[in-house]
Amino acid sequence: MAQRSKAVICREVNKPPVVEEIEVDSPKAGEVMIKLDACGVCHSDLSATNGTIPLPPPLILGHEGAGKVVEVGEGVTDLAVGDSVVSCFVYSCGECRYCKTGRLVLCNDASKAYFTLPTGDLRTKDLSGNPLHIFSGVGVMAEYATVNRKNVVKIEPDIPADRAALVGCAVMTGVGAAINTAKVEPGSSAVIFGAGGVGLNVIQGCAIAGAQTIIAVDMVDKKLEFAQQFGATHVVNPNSDGDPVAKVREITGGAGADYGFECIGLGSVAAQAYSAVGKGGTIVVVGVAKMGDMTSVPTTLLPMEEKIITGSWFGSARPSVDYPRLLGLYKANRLKLDELVTQTYSIDDAPRAFEDLEKGVNARGVIVF
């Protein structure tokens, strides 16, 4: 039976998202239907509306959601109606060489769930009966969503949904980039370019890992204020402080940082991160750039300086392991989730939430259903 649901939809690229009533079909084999309680408003959702992430409209937005299972499809035995879950926007088959070696985010079949279910099907349509694509195979900026079982992780029911939802993207991506991908060491130094939702979580990931010097670089003073709340020991605004690379070198006594994180999605900033990191350091590109954007570094220095340049997709996550660990850190008051949620919105206020996202108003805005 189809379920009526409000949803936030990108109908046309470079136009504001709209809120519509849709129909969500019941789950089939290997799927579950979720009643969403909360969904974070992520920069990646904005990127889908402006074409940076090229997904075909009409597209139901949202990939950072938390809610409860209301219906299970055939063959789903490890989830039951009433279970609390958080969405996972990267599908992993569990069978390919990457899944079997624990690198789930690199699954060979992940591309099957970019804007449909992994089967290529959709369980969503508008009230005229036209199919609606779903962001990253989930489309959870809606009151209800039917998704593949492998795109959700069961969590303890005592975590507030508007906090738990953030583990589904920003927190996992940021903290994971620091701990899983870079493996930041205690006493080290790190520079983070971009103090948005993901950058703030890289900062707190570095702090949890025990980094001694954590430098946040952003052109918005409000974001730098947030950065200090999340563990930055130094902040740099290029508008007032000048060349950030020179500033990072100054702060680190000329050596450069041990780790550099690009959290904006610009090739030129990734090059800055490379220059700001010292010999033998690690540069982690976390931001999603536009297709065709390139990063240029001096080739002659690559062998001489032995720097490592790597990417981090979804914080190199193993969601079924990492989600509970992160939420355990939250319950132990070691992971800041309460401080991330600086504004909540109703679903009808979603267009304003996207406007606020563009303006950099929030650490994280969350739609609460």
Low-confidence stretches: none
**Termini Cα gap:** 21 Å
| Major sheet size, sense and barrel closure | 7 strands, mixed
CATH class designation of the largest domain: Alpha Beta
Name the average pLDDT. 96
Quick summary of this structure?
This protein has 369 residues and is α/β, with parallel strands linked by helices.
Structural notes for this entry:
By secondary structure, this protein is of the alpha/beta class. It has two domains: 3-168 and 339-368, Quinone Oxidoreductase, Chain A, domain 1; 174-312, Rossmann fold. It is built from twelve helices and 18 strands. Strands 3, 5, 6, 9, 10, 17 and 18 form a seven-stranded mixed beta sheet that branches. The radius of gyration is 20 Å and the shape is globular. The model has no long low-confidence stretch (mean pLDDT 96).
Which helices and strands occur, and which strands form pairs?
Layout: E1 3-10, E2 18-24, E3 31-41, H1 43-50, E4 59-60, E5 65-72, E6 84-87, H2 97-100, E7 124-126, E8 133-134, E9 144-148, E10 152-154, H3 161-164, H4 170-181, E11 189-193, H5 197-209, E12 213-217, H6 221-229, E13 234-236, H7 238-241, H8 244-251, E14 257-262, H9 267-276, E15 277-285, H10 301-305, E16 308-311, H11 319-331, E17 341-345, H12 350-359, E18 364-368
Parallel strand pairs: 4-8, 11-12, 11-14, 12-13, 14-15, 15-16, 17-18
Antiparallel strand pairs: 1-2, 1-4, 2-7, 3-5, 3-9, 3-18, 5-6, 6-10
Helix pairs in contact: 4-5, 8-9
What keyword list fits this structure?
369 residues; alpha/beta; Quinone Oxidoreductase, Chain A, domain 1; Rossmann fold; 2 domains; 6-stranded parallel beta sheet; 27% helix
